[in-house]
Amino acid sequence: MPSKKKKYNARFPPARIKKIMQTDEEIGKVAAAVPVIISRALELFLESLLRKACHVTQSRNAKTMTTSHLKQCIELEQQFDFLKDLVATVPDMQGEGEEPHGDGERGPRRGRRPGAGRKNGGPGGKGKDPKQSGTDTEQEVGGTPIFPGE
């Protein structure tokens, strides 16, 4: 009986990984499992980086993760030292007591008012979007929780 090939469940496309690998002239043939393993390693690496960056973001009582949060995470964690050159040009985070506008006054507010968008039931909307009813820990990407088990 012929054996069936196992379909790998990869979040990063193995074909794209293989194509990137083969841009190096020193790499010849690549076994089918190699791009899948690299895909999984990339997934684990990103999960680790984002978990630690999330802790930095939460410790600053921020709701949005910024490049400055990633920079601080990379500078604090020894395992991410190889990324320091990549974030060297990113501005540092402001200190705990520093005000972004100098004399303590807030600058003009930018962006939409809360609830003014269509997804939040604003003009042209047909009610609240069911995807927005979950809490931060219930958010999903591609049908699976961002950080399962938390």
TrEMBL record:
GO terms (BP aspect): negative regulation of transcription by RNA polymerase II
The Transcription factor CBF/NF-Y/archaeal histone domain, residue ranges: 10-74
UniProt feature, compositional bias: Basic and acidic residues: 98-108
Keywords tagged on the record: DNA-binding, Nucleus, Phosphoprotein, Repressor, Transcription, Transcription regulation
SUPFAM superfamilies hit by this protein: Histone-fold (SSF47113)
Entry's localization field: Nucleus
GO CC terms, sorted: negative cofactor 2 complex
Keyword Transcription regulation recorded: yes
Molecular function (Gene Ontology), one example: core promoter sequence-specific DNA binding
InterPro entries: CBFA_NFYB_domain (IPR003958), Histone-fold (IPR009072), Transcr_DNA_Rep_Reg (IPR050568)
Subunit comment: Heterodimer with DR1. Binds BTAF1.
Family recorded in the similarity comment: Belongs to the NC2 alpha/DRAP1 family.
Record-given protein name: Dr1-associated corepressor
Source organism of this protein record: Amazona collaria
